[in-house]
Amino acid sequence: MKLAADKPKQDHENLLPLVNVVFLLLVFFMVTGAFSSPEPFSIEPVIAETDTVAEPKTVTIIMSSKGEFAIDNEIMSIDQVIYEVESYINNNSLKKLQLKSDAEAEALHVVELLERLGKTDIEAIHILTSAKP
Amino acid sequence: MQLPHPAKKSLVNLTPLIDVVFILLIFFMLVSNFIRWHAIELSVGETGEIVVNPLSLSIVTINSNSHYLLDRQVMSLDEIISTLKPKVINQPDHSIIIQPEKGSNVQAMVDILKLLKEFAGDNISITRSSNSTDNL
After folding, report:
1. Could you tell me the pTM of the whole model?
2. Is A133 an 8 Å CB contact of chain B?
């Protein structure tokens, strides 16, 4: 007696596990990932784990390994940085700033920035670090 | 006798759905940032001359090779911490000045700053050393 061969599975049935996995990945990236705008230069973060977590909506000065500065993706000189900071202070009564510096940047650039900020009404600066890479 | 036809499965074409989901997945993979940023707070005071008792002042210098010197003596991070910690505990107004020299990097400065912050709090200042007053 000739038995009937099993009906071949339809193509879309084979795709279902793939779709499931892709959906899970999508949900994972949507939930855990934070949107970030691209930065004007690539930054190798300073590695240090602290108890303080960065505040996401604070004005952040970005400093490259060559000592270039940027605020809101706009590359600028240190004089312009101070000008921008002073306008933030006047408009939003800003008291705290964040500095995202490249780990290999010259420390004296940070010192120079601190000296210049000391002449403004800024009270504190947060140096942003990343936990272990 | 005519048997009833089995109900035909209503098939939804999954291909456009998979396309869209893949595009969304690639989008989220590209724009998501998983770096969790921490922060070290530094008070930004008025710049100028600081008058402190030399006996209650320690100067940590970071040289161009990112080596640490406590009061001009080369030390490891652990040695600096074990030397300074009792001083700060016995003398709460003991000030620590970090002086990075030309060529030292931010990572070296943050490494010592983080360790000193744990026990010295706000008694830490960062200044430039007298031999690095020239422009960068």
Report:
1. 0.76
2. no
